[in-house]
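Narrative summary of target 7.
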Amino acid sequence: GGSSDKMDDDDDDFNVKTWATLHDAALEVLSTPSAHKKALLTQVIAKKWFDGKSILKARDVSSSGKRVKETPERDALVTIVSSNSNKLKLGSGRSIESRRKILHSLSHIESWAIDLSWDIIARFGHEVEKEREFFDDFVRVALDEAKHHLLLTKRLEEIGGKYGDFPAHDGLWQSAMETSDSLMHRLVVEHCVHEARGLDVMPNTINKFRENGDEESALLLETIVYPEEIGHVKAGLKWFKFLLGDASERGGEETVKIFREIVEKKFYGALKPPFNDEARAKAGFDRRYYEVAVDAVV
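Modeled conformation, tokenized:
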């Protein structure tokens, strides 16, 4: 069809692009309005960052003068509604419509997560300028989210929907703005707490597809999205500990204490069970970080 030819043209345009620094590349993704193009651009940038000869530096002397906008560009393809809107109810997965809504919602969250990864690189890169590994880790996270967005959108199309069919909320970005003045807070709230909440609900989401005969969607989530999201929590925790100078495997008591204080101050909403202890543990995110004191439950 005509649309796929057009997509190929877009891909070609992206492949010939060059960026002097990763910072420049990150800003370009953030200022690209189309979710689809954000994902494609991310794939090209990652390839050029990891090949060791295209994008050579994370930042240069011009980078600090190139400011990150408060909010990434987004086209109007997805209608944004408030996070408590009835229009966001996804259902049990029994109807095809419900399964489309769930895939759409996941695809949208992954797209915002692409922006979040580039935002942490562009907004806070100056604080960790010497740490090549920081940039490697978050380019890898961005690449995973781009892949997830594209795979989930493709699966949505296979079951008769398309990206933009349903409204969504931008709660992820709202909370990101609350942490735009602190790398430490951003790592804790977005890259640990929010990502881990994604792990908590994933087994239930997988079952909604599996129990209703959509094994293909269940496997996409179970074998690709789920295991890779565990790695994202791991990256968030790793760099939080790095900022505190904590090189221990588990994270010291002081690290846990500071983490919990930040959550209390900066995370809106209750940290409520059930927690996916097993997946969280795989990320090194053990219960000391999030367990609610029993007597604090109201």
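The radius of gyration is 19 Å.
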